[in-house]
Fold this protein.
Amino acid sequence: MVDLAKIDKYIEKAKEHFDAGEELAFAVFGAYETKTMGKDTVRNGVMLATNQRILFYGKRTFGYDLEVFPYENVSSIEMGKSMMGHHIAFFSSGNKVKMKWINQGDIPGFINHVKATIGKSSARIQAAATQETSSAADEIKRFAELRDSGVITEEEFDAKKKQLLGI
């Protein structure tokens, strides 16, 4: 088992490579299977699901490994659990990406987030978030007009506004 402080350090280092507006959704810690100089290797690190992409970040003795997978390039995801922990694999641009021995992080949250987002472009993800925000704003404007015309009270308007904003 890896301590949570170590995982948090990996996450903070990985965040240094986030794009503007990128936000962490879920993180898992495990052993990432990859190739180094043509040879199969296993590297401990974090796999992060953000609002824009999936990232793998692993520390090296002198540096780090970072791989980035835009959701639009991810075609499928596989998952399972064995005695050593969970494993997650997905296909991105024809390559299989695999992390095994996952025992830390929000595994169900990570999987559900990736399943809901694969195949979508960053622009479509941002557009969906913007549409939700603008729909709430449109509704608030509509209720403000009802309040201003005397159809509903100020208290009813405030209650509906809080409901639409999720507060």
In short: The helical segments are 4-15, 107-117, 122-148, 154-165.
